[in-house]
Amino acid sequence: MSRFASLRHPPNRRAILGRPVFAVALAALASHSGGASAPAPLRELTVCADPNNLPFSNRAEAGFENKLVELVAHDLDAHVTYVWWAQRRGYARHTLAEAKCELWPGVAYGVEHIATTQPYYRSTYVFVTRGDRPLDGLTLDDARLKSLSIGVQMVGDNAMNTPPAQALAHRGLTANVRGYMLYGDYNRPNPPAAIIDAVAHGQIDAALVWGPLAGFFAHRSAVPLRLTPVTAQAGAAQWPMVYDISMGVSPDKPELKTQIEATLEKEKPAINALLRAYYVPQTSAEPFAIHSQAMSTVQPR
């Protein structure tokens, strides 16, 4: 459990006034005679995170980014204070840029206006299909897509939509597409998981979903689901499907960035184990596949 800063309430006045005079005198004497000093206070690490966005983070600190923050804070001998902020458009501007926090635990490597650490994992968008449907091996240029209903994660206007939504529009498949808002209804738990539920319930034939979200909720699905990485196809440079993920740090905190990078390197085995525990697909030179708990599982590397 992360160590949060707590509000210190003033001590009860009656207890102070009722304290024996000699005890007060002894305390004063100890402070002047080299008595044991109080331990130095822990440094504070202020972290911005989404309060309702598993598998990444939530207010209960149950996401893998919460666990990673805990690991970093332990190595830095720091206690964590969260600034909870829904990860919507303008998130970076309203958090790191306005100095509300100093760390964002999951951001694409090299994003503008943020100092990003070296990546701690690389993942990809995936096709999510039911295991009982003959839809394995899908690609963006697969002829089968023309006859399928396809779910994509939507952000808003077309210029800001996810790479799969852009890639399908480029291929003239918009009539087949059903959008699922990436932000969702925050009155419900885990709103981005709605697109996975739609596949499981047969409301759509396939979905194009960011890998960590897909892996986590596919594993929890009562219906066996198949995950297939989106391979590089036409337009790959314009709409990349694979991203390196880093921790974002305030640009004016270069020392903190260096310290966090040292922890990421030192704790690499523990971080990889954490990502496996949350079924995060990690890309490698070899193809990978993740299936739900009802199917055989091939763990990503």
Walk me through the structure.
- By secondary structure, the chain is of the alpha+beta class.
- The protein folds into 2 domains: 43-121 and 242-278, D-Maltodextrin-Binding Protein, domain 2, CATH 3.40.190; 123-229, 3-Layer(aba) Sandwich (D-Maltodextrin-Binding Protein, domain 2), CATH 3.40.190.
- It has 9 helices and 13 strands.
- It has helices spanning 13-17, 21-32, 64-76, 91-94, 163-170, 194-200, 211-220, 254-266, 268-277, and strands at residues 43-49, 52-53, 57-58, 78-84, 103-108, 115-116, 121-130, 150-154, 177-181, 206-210, 225-229, 242-249, 290-291.
- The protein is elongated, with a radius of gyration of 24 Å.
- The protein starts with 12 loop residues before the first helix and ends in a 10-residue tail after the last strand.
- Mean pLDDT is 79; it is low at 1-33 and 285-301.
Which terms would index this structure?
single chain, 301 residues, alpha+beta, D-Maltodextrin-Binding Protein, domain 2, 2 domains, 9-stranded mixed β-sheet, two-stranded parallel sheet, 9 helices, 13 strands, 27% helix, elongated, disordered N terminus, disordered C terminus
CATH class of the largest domain: Alpha Beta
* Percent of residues in β-strands: 15-25%
Sequence of secondary-structure elements:
HHEEEHEHEEEEHEHEHEEHHE
Largest sheet: 9 strands, mixed
Number of domain modules: 2
- Termini Cα gap: 27 Å
Question: How do the strands and helices of this protein lay out in sequence?
Answer:
Elements: H1 13-17, H2 21-32, E1 43-49, E2 52-53, E3 57-58, H3 64-76, E4 78-84, H4 91-94, E5 103-108, E6 115-116, E7 121-130, E8 150-154, H5 163-170, E9 177-181, H6 194-200, E10 206-210, H7 211-220, E11 225-229, E12 242-249, H8 254-266, H9 268-277, E13 290-291
Parallel strand pairs: 1-4, 8-9, 8-10
Antiparallel strand pairs: 2-3, 5-12, 6-12, 7-10, 7-11, 7-12, 11-13
